[in-house]
Amino acid sequence: MLTAAVSVQNIKDDSTGMPLIQSGKGNASVFAFYTMPSGKLKGLGFGGGMRYSAKAYGGEATYGSVWLPQYALFDGSISYDMTNLSPSLRGWKASASVRNLFDKNYIANCFAYGSDGEYCYYGERRNAQASIGYSW
Fold first, then answer.
1. What DSSP assignment string belongs to the chain?
2. Is the pLDDT of residue 117 over 90?
3. 57-84 per-position pLDDT tens digit
4. Nearest residue to 93 (alpha-carbon basis) of 104, 105, 103, 79
5. How many other C-beta atoms lie within 10 A of the C-beta of residue 30?
6. pTM, whole model, 2 decimals?
7. Residues 20, 11 contacting (CB under 8 angstroms)
8. What confidence tens digit (pLDDT) does each residue in 10-66 have?
9. d(Cα 1, Cα 30) in Å, to the nearest integer?
């Protein structure tokens, strides 16, 4: 399975001619996932993908315009249909995923309001999670 998405935008404030705060130029993502259909590894699924965010406008500070730099992040996942271990486990599935696989440091948000201050925030660090679920 392959999933991809792209968005492009050019949004401006009519009163200033500047982009709206937090409006980026666009985003893109692509994710591929494959599940082994047969053999000893039947039911094992794995995938990976990338998320990209173009530069975004953060507002006007006392020293000028604030722009967030573009960034790209990579994610990965794995799953296993446990029916292949035993018929009594039909419906059970184990999975794990990692967001920001390479633990990239990036600035996700900035807000600048002239003399009121500038606030920038780092994005999510590497985040791993696992689950076991049942479907009926």
1. -EEEEEEE---B-TTTSSBPTT-BSEEEEEEEEEE--SSTTTTEEEEEEEEEE--EEEEEETTEEEEEPPEEEEEEEEEEEGGGT-GGGTTEEEEEEEESTT----EEEEEEEETT-EEEEE----EEEEEEEE--
2. no
3. 888 888 888 889 999 999 999 999 999 8
4. 79
5. 14
6. 0.83
7. yes
8. 888 888 888 888 888 899 999 999 999 998 899 999 999 999 999 998 888 888 888
9. 11
Task: Specify the residue for token string 């925030």.
Answer: 121
For residues 89-98, one letter each, b for 16 or more C-beta atoms within 10 angstroms of the residue's C-beta and e for the rest, the string is eeebbeeebb
Q: Which residue has the tokens 């591929």?
A: 32
**Which amino acid does the sequence have at 47?**
G
Which pLDDT band, with edges at 50, 70 and 90, does 129 fall under? very high
Give me the residue spans of the domains in the chain.
2-134
Distance CA 7, CA 74 (A): 18
Neighbours of 49 (CB within 10 A): 18
